[in-house]
Automatic annotation (TrEMBL), chains A, B:
Organism lineage string: Eukaryota, Sar, Stramenopiles, Ochrophyta, Bacillariophyta
InterPro entries found in the cross-reference section: Peptidase_M32_Taq
Domain of life: Eukaryota
Record's protein name: Carboxypeptidase
Species for this entry: Cyclotella atomus
Annotated PROSITE patterns: PEPTIDASE_M32
Pfam family, one: Peptidase_M32
Length: 572, 572
């Protein structure tokens, strides 16, 4: 699975990786299966049976699921090679496309094989039988609890994969290609009207799919069903309430900051910074914060991304531009945050040991990018590295405070494009898109009225006039890939990062000191304890936070973080 | 499929890629299938039907075969990445191993699917029917001739894949692993006796497999059957006769050269040559001779090899060492020769458009490495490139003639190791191994007597005393991988390269001038016409040569090339 860093793409064209299944990684040495189908009824003798020992169906199921994992990972290898190493000639690309199509077809066949569904049901029945015979045995509980969660996840995944009739799946596949082309063309010529029919088809198709996926459960709203694909267990009402709090706090606050005359100097960002020096700085820093290069790689590509070829082989790419140094570094740190999550997942090679959600994933990248990488202590630590790389002939003679101010300065003039927005403005860019998506899915907003609504919100949120649709509602790829319900995860991740930062500092009061000394391991280990190692064991981001830090997602941490920080920076 | 350059591995440990199936490459736009199962009987109207239009079985067969091609290529991507880019940590390797195992299992299932056999038979019947109804139509002939060859190749391949019972296949797989380990250990401790039982098992298993593969056809000797795997259509008797001629000519000739006092100075080879400069020289040269970097890549790895990830994506690796410049360049040119063959195969994505054999492949690499890359005009062309790269402060101030002499100088002192041997001694290294393999398979030589036989031959051929088995019969990996019958292809390739060189110069009398001017394209195009584009259309290396240059493989070209060249170099 690839996670793409939209924030740090210099170009507006970028791709979303498939988000439908997180493929976990490591192989796992299972205990020797005794192959008995019945539990030996004994009160005294050997250790209690695991489900894998008790249930032949479960054992067979796990084997099939792991095969699918390995197939998906093989596809990732081909995808990574295509993005980073392969020549871009047409014949070369065509051949690679055929290879990927064959792998995808086989993986799909295996994932939708009715036999898989039967095994899930049989294993579930076997689990119930085993649980009822030894309900109080503590040794068995962890294995059975885990098995229960595995079966839940796989049941849900199987149902989703198989509820789409072939014609609808074919229409979706074809639409993804045609809508993408239409979007590219519309952007090039600033012609929303030419894209509108495809866009309507994208929304309609996504709704049809959501309708099938929710099945008989009409309690789940359509948009909630769509959101669940990217952020499980966080329905529309929950997100709506959180986003309203953020919107209410930030619109006036941003207006206030915008009016300040105390903008920090951006001079330390400007100049000429050799790409090799930037690469070297980035590599040094991502390894220092904890990216494990012995189980991964650092490369360069057109758009930064993270991709797991297995959880023991997590690769990140960066992109650098000579005219500035911060974006390249920020992108690297962001991807490293994603990668450290993947690198510290469990090793079952099952969905259980994959990232909980896109939002949780984004909390990891933004934790490092912002709460570490935009902090004062970080620049006290990093300054010598930056000065050594860029400071020949005193060309980079800035204090840590000056650098801190510059990287956090907000560019209010150029605030049209989400992926280029700073952390203060970014939330409203996301809320704008969330509001529009929600309204279109609810039938409250017509697709043809998207540009007007977009521009109205940009004015309301930022006092900005959108000059054309290319720089307005045509800037993002997501809807043309039918990724409707994806946008909110960026803000949920931002909010979760701030909450984690708060609680991490509670557990590690020496947080700032650790960063200043370049001792990042305790921080990364805290995140592994609280987030990474749990994979998909929790039902939602909220459940994870309640269990691990004692409180569900609360917007105040995010709002306080931004208001305190920018009040200080802008001296208001 | 990877072709590994044994000659240029600096270390003795190296790997043989799977040789059992050549996976061809390019996708191919088939004409719209009319899906009719019967030929429309008409004398006047539309163009005659192709087999694909006439036979639903053939169409389905091609689709299945291409799927297998794409799967095999996907495995190559994973293998290439593993060899060149992937971290070497244990967990990383384990995970990649599982992915490869899944792909291999699926490819094997598809290749041995009984349905495939039925489709081949039905398509063959449909072909006969179609041929009988329009025997004289020239337009149809090419398509039908091609289809006939495709079906022949696939029938043979299917029969070979399916004649091995599961237990034997499992034993072979397990033996490949255990024999390899035993070989590595035996080499480390110079203990042939510890390896002998595994080695015997390798020969016995290979013989069992050959027995099954030849089926009822007892006319084919077992060793001929094994040879056919690597060099189709060249039985033991043919190879025996050719090799005897070479042995008879070279043993005395080498003795004469060895006695000469006019050894060329090797000084131009020695010194310190920065790796980056060597990389740059190699890249420049391989691209100049015709390696198409827009449909491939040039990397560095532990052992040089060529691997096709599709025929539009052919990758070569090189290896450099600071203390000398020639081996790294020779390795690159050698791999580029292999690669240009792959890059100019046809685009059906079927076995038809894969390399004819290992021997023909080697003729391509050696043509460029020796007949171009060891020639006087080549050094007249290359000298400025070498001098610019290595010649700072007059450190590389040699004439083209001095460089020519040095690269062709023979090291008679250090002539124990095949992969390090020069072109003059190399043939006898191959013949030594051929003689032993043949004798063991025939039951004339016991595995335990291999060291004695080896050492006796080394004395007879080279007047060399082998100090230990590590530098003697334990030096090559092949037998421990059950690649018995592989060695002869190196010498067949050498001989074919010399014959091609002779005929190329006949068709292009300006051959030397072209090289001296760096105009390699006409030469590469001649090879494409004579060899590359034919894929597996010919039944053997001999048939290809008869059809394309008018004469089957004739040892005189090779013998004359060596005797004339080295008589001149050593002034005898």
């Amino acid at each position: 699975m690839a996670l793409l860093s939209f924030k740090h793409a210099s170009k507006i064209i970028y791709c979303i990786a498939s988000v439908s299944s997180f493929a976990p990684h490591r192989s796992y040495a299972s205990t020797a299966a005794r192959a008995s189908l019945k539990m030996t009824a004994t009160a005294t003798s050997s250790a209690p049976l695991t489900l894998e020992e008790h249930s032949a169906a479960y054992k067979e199921l796990l084997d099939k699921l792991r095969t699918i994992t390995h197939l998906n990972h093989a596809s990732s290898v081909l995808n990574y090679d295509r993005s980073v190493f392969m020549s871009s000639s047409e014949r070369t690309s065509l051949a690679r496309g055929k290879q990927l199509a064959v792998l995808a077809t086989i993986a799909h066949e295996k994932a939708t094989d009715p036999q898989l569904g039967k095994l899930i049901d049989q294993a579930t029945a076997d689990l119930q039988q085993l649980s009822s015979t030894c309900p109080n045995d503590p040794t068995n509980n962890e294995d059975l609890t885990t098995a229960k969660r595995i079966l839940e996840l796989e049941k849900r995944s199987f149902t989703k994969s198989t509820c789409i009739p072939v014609e609808l799946a074919a229409h979706k596949a074809s639409l993804e290609a045609s809508a993408y082309s239409a979007w590219v063309k519309a952007r090039e010529t600033d012609d929303f009207a030419s894209f509108a029919p495809s866009l309507k088809d994208c929304f309609d198709t996504a709704k049809k799919i959501a309708e099938l996926q929710r099945g008989d459960n009409k309690d789940i709203g359509l948009y909630s069903q769509m959101l669940d694909e990217f952020e499980m267990g966080m329905p529309e009402e929950r997100i709506d309430a959180l986003f309203q709090e953020v919107q209410d706090a930030l619109v006036p606050f941003i207006a206030k900051i915008r009016g300040s005359e105390n903008a920090p100097s951006l001079e330390p960002l400007k100049g000429s910074f050799p790409i090799d020096a930037q690469k070297s700085v980035s590599q040094k820093i991502v390894k220092a914060i904890g990216f494990d290069e012995s189980h991964g790689r650092i490369d360069v590509s057109v758009h930064p991304f993270t991709m797991s070829l297995s959880n023991a082989d997590v690769r990140i790419t960066s992109r650098f531009s000579e005219s500035e140094w911060y974006q390249g570094l920020a992108g690297s740190v962001h991807e490293a945050g994603h990668a450290m999550y993947e690198q510290h997942l469990g090793d079952s090679d099952l969905g259980l040991d994959s990232a909980l959600s896109m939002g949780v994933h984004e909390s990891q990248s933004l934790f490092w990018e912002r709460h570490v990488g935009l902090s004062r202590p970080f620049y006290r630590w990093a300054r010598p590295i930056l000065t050594e790389a860029f400071g020949k002939d005193d060309k980079f003679d800035y204090s840590a405070e000056e650098i801190y101010n510059a990287v956090n300065g907000v560019d209010f003039e150029n605030n049209l494009i989400r992926v280029e927005a700073d952390e203060l403005n970014y939330p409203l860019h996301v809320i704008l898109r969330y509001n529009i998506e929600r309204a279109v899915v609810a039938g409250e907003l017509d697709v043809n009225d998207i540009p007007a609504e977009w521009n109205k919100s940009m004015k309301e949120f930022f006092a900005i006039d959108v000059p054309n649709d290319t720089k307005g509602c045509l800037q993002d790829i997501h809807w043309s890939c039918l990724a409707i319900g994806y946008f909110p995860t960026y803000l949920l991740g931002s909010m979760m990062a701030a909450q984690l930062s708060h609680y991490c500092k509670k557990d590690l009061p020496e947080f700032d000191n650790l960063i200043e000394k370049g001792e990042f391991t305790p921080i990364r280990e805290w995140l592994t304890e609280k987030v990474h190692k749990h994979g998909k064991r929790y039902a939602s981001l909220d459940d994870l936070l309640v269990a691990e830090v004692g409180e569900k997602l609360n917007s105040k941490y995010f709002i306080d973080y931004l208001t305190e920080k920018y009040s200080d920076l802008y001296k208001i």
